[in-house]
Amino acid sequence: MNAVNQSTAPQLKPFQDDGRPRPKVSIIMPAYNRADFMRNSATMILQQTLTDLELIISDDHSTDHTPQVAAELARLDPRVRYHRPSVKGGINTVVNEGISLSRGHYIQLCHDHDIYLPTLTEKLAEVMNRNPSVVFVHPGRQGCDHLGNPLPQAYFVCGYPEVSPGLVWRRKMLSRLASPVTGLSMIRRTALEQVGLFDPEFGACSDIDMWLRLCAIGDVGYVNELLLFVRGREPGHAYGGVNWQILHQVIKAHRKHLPLHYQGLAYLYWKMRREIGIDTSLLIDFLNSFRHRRWNDVKSGRNYLRENGVFLSKIAGRIL
Prior knowledge:
Elements: H1 3-6, E1 25-31, H2 35-46, E2 53-59, H3 66-76, E3 80-83, H4 91-101, E4 106-109, E5 115-116, H5 120-130, E6 134-144, E7 150-156, E8 163-164, H6 166-174, E9 186-188, H7 189-195, H8 206-215, E10 219-231, H9 244-261, H10 264-291, H11 295-308, H12 312-319
Parallel strand pairs: 1-2, 1-4, 2-3, 6-10
Antiparallel strand pairs: 4-9, 5-10, 6-7, 6-9, 8-10
């Protein structure tokens, strides 16, 4: 059974052509309580050199002035739509509902606080246009702090080919926990209709499961240019430091897809290697929490590792 058939993700219905013109790209922007950042990020999207787009702001029941900012953006530019789900459901709900409302041939994900260079959407769409076998394409990127200052140690323009076979890329992703693919990528809509939407089972890391599922059905595109800055979390943000639940979701995605990529003795070999790698990563994160005196991370890590550690990491959770 392949990764597509094993997915528990909601399905995306095939697009029903109603005769109206379709935009080339639908940009889905999940939003939550970052109204001022969102205004800036949305403005960067609306100023992209590729203008044949729609921007769907999907709001997870913000309690700040996000609805007012979105309404202002929609009044000024008819390409903007604002959506608020009937119930607050988290990142996967707002993204999936935004995609279900979209009309574009390509679906691009853009967060409500990152910094987008003007040619981002155009460069991604060009790779899709040139390569019909590509099911998703991701760009070069750089991290920045919450104020927008670039971080030299977080520069990821990696020299990958414009097109790589999906199964080669899946093997690359399964070789390490840190994902080489940014969540801010572009997906061919017909590919989503085949594999389904983002799977809530993987929480905030559902994008990793998505890339691995897409790798099973087509090729992977890359733009070897710096096209966006991923903004760091604000001080005190819930995802600052080590988030053990997110690590757990990443590990769960790897354990799901490893037996779908390898079989027989090869699977046993790579499972052993992957578990050693997971154990080492968990142990290093736990020890770094001590080193940087992040005592809340130490406490939560100790509880997590006692239950979910592999070997050395489990021992560390019990004795430290």
